Amino acid sequence: MVKHTKPKTFYEDFVRKGGPGEKNTHYCPGCGHGNVHKLIAEVIDELGIQDRVIFCSPVGCSVFAYYYFDTGNIQCAHGRAPAVGTGLARSLENSIIISYQGDGDLAGIGMGAIMHAANRGEHIAVFFVNNAIYGMTGGQMAPTTIVGQKTLTTPLGRSAGRDGFPLTMCEIINNLAAPVFIERVSLGNAARILKAKKAIKQALVNQVEKKGFSFVEILSPCPINWKMQPIEARKWLIDKLEPVFPVKNFRNGDSQVKYDPPRPVSDEEMKKLFNLEKDISIKQKEEHISEQLVKLAGFGGQGVLSGGILLANCAIAEKHNTSWLPSYGPEMRGGTANAGVIISDGQIGSPLVDNPNFFIAMNGPSLDSFEDQVLPGGTILVNSSLIERKVNRSDIKTLYAPLTEIAQQAGAVAAATVAGITMYALSTGIIAVDTIRQVIPLSIKRKALIDENLKVVDAAREYYEKNLAKT
Amino acid sequence: MERQLIKGNEAVVFGALLGGATHFFGYPITPASEVAHMAAKQFPATGNCFLQAEDEVNAINMLYGAAAAGSRVMTASSGPGISLMAEGISYMAGAELPAVIVHVQRAGPGLGNIWPEQSDYNATVKGGGHGNYKNIVLAPFSAQEMCDFTYRSFELAEKYRMLVFVLADAYIGQIMESVTLPGDVKHAPRYDWALYGDRESRGNLISSILMNTELLSTHNWKLDDKYKKVAEELTEWEEYETEDADYLFVAFGVCARLCLSALSALRKQNIRIGLLRPKTLFPFPSKRLCELRKKIKTAIVVELNNGQMADDVELALRCAVPVHRYNWMGGKVPSTQDIIDRALKDLRG
Ligand SMILES: Cc1ncc(C[n+]2csc(CCOP(=O)(O)OP(=O)(O)O)c2C)c(N)n1
Ligand code: SF4
């Protein structure tokens, strides 16, 4: 009799299994999972990678693979092992990640996970145990159940018309560019098992050599749910499964995808990148200001949102508190846009500017919408380039200025709100025009744009001083 | 340290990276996508991993794998995506894996719309997936807190081996404010429970399956003890003008901001009202509310949902104090004046 020695990668006693029989596995007699476990364990021994292996077990009969493998172990949700393997592989450069999955797990509930992990070329070895049935739950149809095969949920046999055809995963994955190794093997007899071991070894060697995604499909018997004796089951596997799932190598090569992980940076570099050391405050805070509720409204493309951001940046530069909140979503895609900016020396409560004390109306519809909401005693700055009518209310201050023309003449139509912000500064004195001039270069990246925006500020100041200063 | 104008959704990313995050796995969804956009830029720029997953189901399982490997890992999503993550969240709770989930709430149910709601309070605070578990839930109400809470959240997650949710809403995600970024960069230490693919960690097992009823029962009680400990150690809230208050607003997120404005207006009309703002939703400041019930005559819970937190407030107050529920849904956000008007009516009778 041949003496079977246990691979070193298996635990001596299956303590995690508990209960009686700590020497035996939980698998049924004649089950293929035991074979596959042993092959994997032997290859791990041969390659000397036991410490580096992390074994992802699926949901299915092999859910308890961690009873046996003396490696790092993680038990995954049904079908998700390739995603879990992705998280591991992206974290641990030096580990060998094994994703062990059944056919329900991989080709049913986990179809999305396996396809995308394969397509990304994740550095994992997938061992896909195809027994053409759901073993653990007692024998229901699997995505790989063959046409005519009887299961609990196909009592009359799988009907292609109703249930579709069995999924051939190797062929499907072979359509993808990233995988480096794809092979289907069988546990039908001793010779086939030897071949299976070779494929398993290649998949793991590929991990050691950091080659990439490797996929081995293993046709495997489930005598209990096939309702056969173990020997009969091996025969059925060869006679019935192999014709549907041809045993062969589909690919053995180098990956066509290459990924260069980003270069690590030091803490100091990170701080610099995040501007942690840069001081953007421009002037020391002087007297306290009363809370400013500013609303800018117009149509998309008038710079309503960015104008608001400029104002908020100026407020920070002058050491005030500020908040900016846009209208957003579909509203932003064409149509009207508006932003509320609050400037305060206290804590800012609601960030919504329901009732502004300063309203910059960039177009007619905005004036119509918000005129009534301005606080009594507040101010409306009307962009007279686009709004012909006058403000109806008499309990507020009004300023009329051709903001669009001012911006256009300075060469930056999109900066009409910059003209508006400049006039806000001049009219209220809350922020200095100099602050605007100094903040613009900090918040705009393109040099040409900076110059244009600065010209708009100067032109707006000139217009204000000439026409509005006395009002 | 300098203040910068940063959007809530983006502040999250700076807080995360300074807090030692190394991995971000996510799937786009408004109004949380901006977190992914900024992460896609800053994670690689700082030598870290950003990966767009095929869907949220697998994104959360990437978190499961990375967390098991001892990485500081996060994702960001909104209602429909969080629903898809429920399975993985439950597994992570069972396997006691630490990670951070930024949840920028939109309006539901179903596809709903992309405007703010706080209607995932129950799903987030009470669990959301299957089984007896809890998440730590932090409720930021400003861009600064989006940064600070995310920054802290990794250490909290690891300390208790729990998931930490940063539960925001579309407005807190969208808001730009002056933010001071934390000056210290943190890093994850090595943990004795994690898988590192080396000899020392070889015996480790990350799993949520315990077939033996005795073992699972013990595990569940152990989790429960942990949640009790979290409640004792971590409950955080902020009070505004509660010393002399006859009435109390209770609100979180953007609603707390609205209540702050309403509070100062009501105080000017001689209505002595205060605000209690939970900063942690689990654990919930029940004890403090219970104390306050001796002082206050009425509580007003302001929420963008159908009164989900109000149930917890009522429970904490032991029904000793009438609770008014001011609720808005569908993405509608009240004006400060709406809240003031209702409060005047309810409190002046
Ligand atoms: C989300 C979810 N759905 C269903 C189940 C129930 N379930 C457990 S194992 C299994 C099928 C396993 O079949 P397979 O992947 O073929 O593995 P086998 O048991 O045959 O090895 C199912 C449906 C589950 N655990 N989780
Ligand atoms: S049910 Fe089938 S797959 Fe599961 S252990 Fe038994 S023989 Fe193996």
Brief rundown of the structure:
Chain A is of the alpha/beta class and 471 residues long. Chain A is built from 16 helices and 13 strands. Chain A has two domains: 15-252, Thiamin diphosphate (ThDP)-binding fold, Pyr/PP domains (Rossmann fold, 3-Layer(aba) Sandwich); 269-280 and 288-467, Pyruvate-ferredoxin Oxidoreductase, domain 3 (3-Layer(aba) Sandwich).
How would you portray this structure in words?
The complex is a heterodimer of chains A (471) and B (349). Chain A has 471 residues and is α/β, with parallel strands linked by helices. Chain A has two domains: 15-252, Rossmann fold, CATH 3.40.50.970; 269-280 and 288-467, Pyruvate-ferredoxin oxidoreductase, PFOR, domain III (Pyruvate-ferredoxin Oxidoreductase, domain 3). Chain A is 36% helix and 16% strand. Chain A contains 16 helices and 13 strands. Chain A has helices spanning 32-47, 81-89, 103-109, 111-120, 160-163, 169-173, 190-208, 223-226, 230-244, 267-273, 304-317, 364-370, 403-409, 416-428, 433-443, 447-468; strands spanning 53-57, 72-75, 96-102, 125-130, 181-186, 214-219, 249-252, 292-299, 321-326, 336-344, 358-361, 379-383, 397-401. Chain A has a seven-stranded mixed β-sheet with strand order 2-1-3-4-6-5-7, with helices on both faces. Chain A has a six-stranded mixed β-sheet with strand order 9-10-8-11-12-13, with helices on both faces. The longest helix of chain A is centred in the last third of the chain and has 22 residues, at 447-468. Chain B has 349 residues and is of the alpha/beta class. Chain B has two domains: 3-234, Thiamin diphosphate (ThDP)-binding fold, Pyr/PP domains (Rossmann fold), CATH 3.40.50.970; 238-348, Rossmann fold. Chain B contains twelve helices and 15 strands. Chain B has helices at 8-18, 33-45, 56-68, 79-95, 121-125, 143-160, 170-174, 213-234, 254-268, 286-292, 308-316, 336-348, and strands spanning 3-7, 23-26, 49-52, 73-77, 99-105, 136-138, 163-169, 176-180, 205-206, 237-240, 247-250, 273-278, 280-282, 298-303, 323-327. Chains A and B meet through β1, β2, α2, α4 and α10 of A and β1, α1, α2, α3 and α4 of B. β9 (321-326) of chain A pairs antiparallel with β8 (176-180) of chain B.
